[in-house]
Amino acid sequence: MVFASREEEIDYLRDELEKAGYDETSKKQWDEATLGRVRKLRQLEEEAPRRRRADVYDESGSDEEESDEEAEEVDEQGICWSGARGPDMEEEEAEAPARRRCAHVKEDGRQCPNFVLGSNEKCDFDPTRFCGPACAAAAAARAEALAAKMEAEALERKRARSESDVGARKPATRRAAPGLSDMMAACARAPEPEPEPEAPPSPVARKKKKKKKPKKAKEAVPDEIMTIVVRDRRKDSSEEDTTVKLRTSTKLARVFGAYADGLGASVDTLRFLYKGGDVYGDETAGAIGLAEGACLECVDGDPPAKQKKRVTGTVVRWDGSRGGIEPAEQGSGGRIAVRVSGVRRGTSLRVGDKVEYAIGRKGDARFAVDVMVYAPAAEADEDSKDGAVVTLANLNYDTKRYDLKEHIGSIVGKSFGRVELTAKGRAAVGFRTLAQAEAAAAALDGTELAGRSLSARVRKESQGRRRAPSLDVAEAAAPASPRASPR
Q1: Residues 6 or more apart in contact with residue 87 via CB below 8 angstroms
Q2: Model pTM greater than 0.70?
Q3: How many CA within 13 A on the CB side of residue 157?
Q4: Are strands 73-74 and 79-81 parallel, antiparallel or unpaired?
């Protein structure tokens, strides 16, 4: 498109940008055509010399009448520059390059239409860029505002970068106050459903868990300082007393070592007693009850090995080389194994003996050591130390072991041992003593199981049998599982 003057082209570009809604402060991404108009407008505003108005050359011949009277010039673009060329025009053309448009841009984006003065006597503004002091002041204010805006944007970018480095969230953008459209949208929105009322509590009240009371911390025993006496009772000694100061929490091994060094002897050759009993080095003064003025005695001899805790129990199984012991005290663990190597020399075990033993460990295994008998088995069991067996006959061929054990338990209680189905229609029940076996046989003989009348008799278990049912107290005490019974 061809324009008659630079001012007309500038006006056209401004109108086009206004139609497109261009705004310098907006961060919107504009198309290339709009950006091209912006660049062209800025270029024209910077270089806007005064030009003569020009008329587009009309080939229709409307100006033919004046063509003879006025001199016409037609340039390469077809623009006809008309008008009388007198001496005034030549002077005006000579002054045109020196006169420029005012550089001030108004708030609406239009450039000031006035021309620069070129000179200023007061020197209160730049006459080569502005038409007056008002435009110069407005341009200065706009430049300051633009600089402040750019500085604020730089600070905002720097703060956002620092927050993103430390992982902080960016501050939420402040929303404008809701307008009429937002209010109408809120009114048109469906109301939120009211919360449903809570269901009534169930009639079956759950058991409330009892709050565990915090355990009271054990009061710390005061670590007091005491003075005790160590008396030398060795052979050929003067029985001299030595006072020793120590705390309640002091290990006695330190006292023994210091006392032996004072005597010039080895602590491994001394033995210390308190009230006639051995005292061990890994014990503390408070643990054995030492008080102010207590007396320890030092004698010759090797320090005694600390004895293991001893437990009592009953021998429930013994075949001459190995067996089992049922502990009598609670908290001593379950049944424990015993071998002949763990029995004290000169002691023989029998089923039913009351024994005392210590617990040895090897890895996760537990076994009885230093087993000694403190109460032999009853004399009634003397003739039946190998156990007795009751043979049941006339059983149904598909009788299950579980059903047979339930039947026996309902008649004789829990005093029987292992139950085995030896053949079709036969079973063997082990008992600890012969007396128990005879009583059970008398009670079981003639009883009915699954429509059959059972026959029971006692046979003494001999050494020559291939396998003898052994007594299993744990199995007799607990109901057998039907899954474990053989078919």
Answers
A1: none
A2: no
A3: 6
A4: antiparallel
Residues 6 or more apart whose CB falls under 8 angstroms from that of 114 comprise: 101, 102, 131, 132, 135
d(C-alpha 359, C-alpha 371), whole Å: 10
> What is the token pair recorded at 286?
């408070």
Q: Which domains does the chain have, with CATH numbers?
A: 225-300 (3.10.20.90), 310-377 (2.40.50.140), 384-484 (3.30.70.330)
Average pLDDT, integer, range 22-36? 81
Q: What is the pLDDT of residues 240-289, one digit of tens each?
A: 888 988 888 888 888 888 888 888 888 888 888 887 778 888 788 887 77
Residues 6, 90: Cα–Cα separation, whole Å:
20
Contact 333, 313 (CB under 8 A): no
Structure tokens at 440: 């059970």
Neighbours of 480 (CB within 10 A): 17
Q: Are 433 and 416 in contact (CB under 8 A)?
A: no
pLDDT for res 54? 38
∠ Cα 229 232 236 (to 5°): 165
Concatenated DSSP letters of 375-386 = EPPPGGGGGGTT
Amino acid letter, 325: I
3-state secondary structure 21-72: CCCCCCCCCCCHHHHHHHHHHHHHHHCCECCCCCEECCCCCCCHHHHCCCCC
Instruction: Take residue 211 and report the two structure tokens written for it.
Output: 């709050």
Mean per-residue pLDDT over the chain, rounded: 73
The alpha carbon torsion through 167, 173, 174, 180 (nearest 10 deg) reads -150
Contact of 354 with 375, CB cutoff 8 Å:
yes
Residue 112 CB partners (closer than 8 Å, separation 6+) = 101, 102, 103, 104, 105, 106, 130, 131, 135
Partners of residue 426 on adjacent β-strands? 423
